[in-house]
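Lecture notes, part 5. Sequence design as translation. It can be helpful to think of inverse folding as translation between two languages: the language of shapes and the language of residues. The source text, in structure tokens, appears below.
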């Protein structure tokens, strides 16, 4: 594709919904939003409760154990990353035999892998706990390892549901499991069992999730079964694809976890807790735009199987435009309200997390804006774009964080992460546009990114001006139960200014309004007749 045709791809006139196919995309995105939002909401609600039952140091230890096990999970050689892609591809062809082969291969691998995960973790426990200044709690780490091993199998089954493009069912599993998660956490902590109780609870929850996912999978697709057939050549193919995505998982680990290890090493375990609460809040911010692109891999994989490049490009552009607009708004507003949000959520005592939230929000937000390119590339069988961007991230992040943490403490580690995320996201866009779209990334930066960023900055300034005009609004936020009043007022001012600027700059057009009204109309129909609409869409 030459540069001129590339420009056509990024013109706003080409951004329209795609008929019945868009309904599946919109429906899957809606269910992903509900599931992701609910998952993060439960996490946000449980965090202050857990902090009230554990010391800051104990909470930091619990976080670090999760980081260790996440690192061990990288030893699966990328197989877990390939399930959604291959199931979606074979489902589009109606090839149940190959889907069953995927299931059996995954079950066999993760059963063996789980045993290895537990063994490696037990052997490394003394070394890891000594290096990162952690006091050993007998039996806790072993239980955490077992729960992760079981959860890998459950996640494989959930990924199969996503590959079948049944996001309603995959998210239903996560939502229903939140109830035993809430109840179990409260029961074990109220019983005074501390981290040991949380570890037992994680094993029970993993077992329940595994059973629930399998039952949903059989209900959705009765033709699925454990085929007891192993094809080494096919498994090598899955590993070959997954290995490229494995680099992305490594980057995710480095991006979202390595700072906690660096902080624990140089600043102590207690400092990890303050970083973790900042990370959880900004990850919640990141989740909303991220869910808008969460359905792109199975969608573009299905379109790729049909060789429908035109719709792939339209889906990419549609996702990019709306993800950028939403991400910029969220980043700007979270930076403005970081102090208010933390005090509303956790009360006083976490003031040092404010700067961490503000710094991480920038990096996490920019990272999401490259997500449409990452997901589209993975869906069409070109995960190397994301892989190369992630390699750069994996190299830059620890180097920058190590350099800055000595000088600026935890804020330096956060700044290192954000800088690495920004550079890696830019590199990913350059590769994707050059090697897949055949145009230059500066075109989508100009047409999709610049005006939302300008609008977000000006809207933020308008909120500061609003505070100067009404100082009492800032004062009432010193009372915790009145903080929502300030946040709501600031949100109203920011939203009006941001949307008005996007319209004035002609970034939001009549086509966007048509898309929005069409989506709302579809949403109302779906709410009124959920069963009928699901049958029509998932038939």
């Amino acid at each position: 594709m030459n540069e001129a045709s590339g420009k056509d791809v990024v013109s706003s006139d080409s951004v329209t919904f795609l008929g019945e196919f868009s309904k599946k995309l919109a429906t899957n995105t809606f269910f992903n939003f509900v599931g992701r939002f609910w998952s993060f909401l439960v996490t946000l609600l449980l965090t202050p409760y857990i902090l009230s039952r554990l010391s800051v140091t104990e909470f930091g230890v619990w976080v670090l154990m999760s980081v260790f096990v996440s690192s061990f999970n990288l030893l699966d050689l990328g197989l877990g990353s390939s399930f959604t892609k291959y199931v979606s591809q074979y489902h589009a062809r109606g090839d149940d035999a190959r889907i069953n082969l995927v299931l059996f291969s995954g079950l066999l691998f993760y059963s063996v892998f789980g045993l290895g995960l537990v063994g490696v973790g037990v052997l490394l426990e003394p070394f890891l706990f000594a290096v990162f200044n952690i006091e050993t709690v007998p039996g806790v780490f072993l239980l955490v390892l077992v729960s992760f091993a079981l959860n890998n199998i459950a996640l494989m089954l959930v990924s199969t549901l996503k590959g079948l493009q049944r996001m309603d069912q995959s998210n239903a599993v996560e939502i229903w499991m939140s109830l035993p998660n809430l109840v179990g956490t409260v029961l074990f902590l109220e019983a005074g069992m501390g981290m040991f109780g949380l570890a037992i609870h994680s094993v029970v929850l993993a077992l329940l999730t595994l059973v629930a996912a399998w039952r949903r999978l059989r209900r959705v697709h009765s033709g699925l079964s454990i085929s007891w057939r192993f094809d080494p050549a096919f498994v090598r193919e899955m590993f070959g694809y997954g290995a490229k995505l494995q680099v992305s998982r490594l980057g995710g680990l480095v991006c979202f976890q390595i700072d906690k290890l660096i902080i624990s090493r140089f600043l102590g375990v207690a400092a990890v807790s303050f970083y973790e609460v900042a990370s959880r809040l900004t990850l919640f911010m990141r989740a909303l735009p991220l869910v808008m692109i969460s359905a792109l891999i199975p969608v573009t994989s299905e379109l790729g199987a049909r060789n429908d490049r035109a719709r792939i490009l339209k889906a990419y552009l549609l996702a990019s435009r709306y993800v950028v607009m939403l991400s910029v708004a969220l980043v700007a507003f979270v930076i403005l309200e970081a102090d208010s949000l933390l005090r509303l959520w956790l009360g006083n005592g976490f003031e040092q997390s404010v700067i961490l939230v503000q710094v991480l929000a920038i990096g996490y937000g920019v990272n999401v804006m490259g997500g449409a390119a990452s997901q589209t590339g993975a869906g069409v069988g070109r995960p190397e774009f994301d892989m190369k961007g992630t390699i750069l991230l994996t190299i830059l992040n620890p180097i920058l964080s190590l350099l800055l943490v000595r000088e600026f403490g935890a804020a330096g580690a956060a700044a290192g992460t954000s800088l690495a995320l920004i550079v890696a996201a830019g590199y990913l866009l350059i590769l994707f546009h050059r090697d897949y779209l055949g145009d230059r990334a500066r075109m989508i930066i100009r047409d999709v990114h610049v005006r939302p960023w300008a609008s977000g900055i000006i809207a933020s300034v308008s909120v500061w001006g609003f505070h100067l005009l009404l100082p009492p609004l800032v004062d009432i936020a010193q009372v915790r139960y009145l903080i929502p009043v300030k946040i709501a007022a600031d949100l109203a001012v920011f939203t009006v200014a941001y949307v008005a600027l996007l319209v004035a700059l002609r970034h939001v057009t009549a086509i966007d309004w048509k898309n929005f009204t069409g989506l709302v109309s579809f949403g109302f129909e779906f709410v009124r007749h959920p069963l009928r609409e699901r049958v029509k869409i998932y038939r």
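The translated text above is only one of many valid answers, since several sequences can fold into similar shapes. Residues 1-21 have pLDDT under 50 and may be disordered.
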